[in-house]
Design brief:
The structure holds 2 protein chains of 2 kinds.
Chain A (H helix, E strand, L loop, with lengths): L3 E4 L2 E4 L5 E7 L6 E7 L5 E8 L5 E2 L8 E7 L2 E6 L8 E7 L9 E2 L3 E5 L1
Parallel strand pairs in A: 2-11
Antiparallel strand pairs in A: 1-3, 3-8, 4-5, 4-9, 5-6, 7-8, 9-10, 9-11
Chain B lengths: L2 E3 L4 E5 L4 E3 L2 E3 L5 E7 L5 E7 L5 E3 L5 E5 L4 E6 L8 E8 L7 E2 L3 E6 L1
Classes of the chains: A mainly beta, B mainly beta.
Chain lengths: ~120, ~110
Amino acid sequence: GAVVSQHPSRVICKSGTSVKIECRSLDFQATTMFWYRQFPKKSLMLMATSNEGSKATYEQGVEKDKFLINHASLTLSTLTVTSAHPEDSSFYICSAGRTGDSSPLHFGNGTRLTVT
Amino acid sequence: AQSVAQPEDQVNVAEGNPLTVKCTYSVSGNPYLFWYVQYPNRGLQFLLKYITGDNLVKGSYGFEAEFNKSQTSFHLKKPSALVSDSALYFCAVRDGGNTPLVFGKGTRLSVIA
């Protein structure tokens, strides 16, 4: 069964509004979660590493003030797309893994964001 | 820096035939290698991994992959393809520890009945 839950699966919002996406690890504690963005017919681009109890680490070129990440507990990380614009429309996927080098990362089912 | 290359954007195979999806990698240390599959508008599902041990790794849904250190490859294989195997396949590498996966660009597999 799913070990990482992501919500919502699909959201449509108006330009200028903010959208929050939740990512939960269901049966394990995740001190670190990862947020990816996937463009159509493209690979997954790492946006940021979400660290429980501290600031997220953003990849080069990702605006931290636009993509706010909060990792308030060991089972929940949120990504808020602030003042969304049509170019933010994309597929956002979170992932988390149990501790240990050999653990595979488990992925949420993704969130399809459409900004009109 | 670590990287993964999937040289084929698309692989077509007839149902019942063997399939191979290619992947090569570049890492500075020992590689942690993974294969994932993605169905439309869904997240990624873990198929298999290589960390250490036998070079031939068996995973979910009858898939397997062969780690070849000299060729820095980790090709995904299945002896007999099913139409339901049609999906987008990603090879990925991890640098150990609590680090993110670095993905290849993905290969779309189409199995034709």
